[in-house]
Amino acid sequence: MTIFIPQVDHSGRAFSSTIESLCCWRCRFCSRPYTSWGSLAGHMREAHGSNVGTKEVMRECLVRAVHFRCPLCRQEMLCDRAVISSHAHSKHMIGMPGMGFLLILFPF
User: Fold this and answer.
1) Of 4, 64, 67, 107, which is least packed with CB atoms within 10 Å of its CB?
2) Domain coordinates of the chain in residue numbers?
């Protein structure tokens, strides 16, 4: 098992150079913990019939925030596979394997 130790920037926020989901989320209905936004969103939709497509719900359920900086455009986002994948696809038209390769070439 790998233990993750985030790097902390000058603002005190934790950053990661990995594309793994490192944030921690908690269901607002039953308090069940999740390590990915996608898993939590699926749970809330299926178990509670809740629409979770808003950033307000995402912020409300976030327990531990770790950030990720895109190696191409330097945009900061939550270090969650669904968030990074959406950014990579919509902004750069690449998939997660491509983003992983870029992190090898351009570590933060």
Assistant:
1) 107
2) 14-105
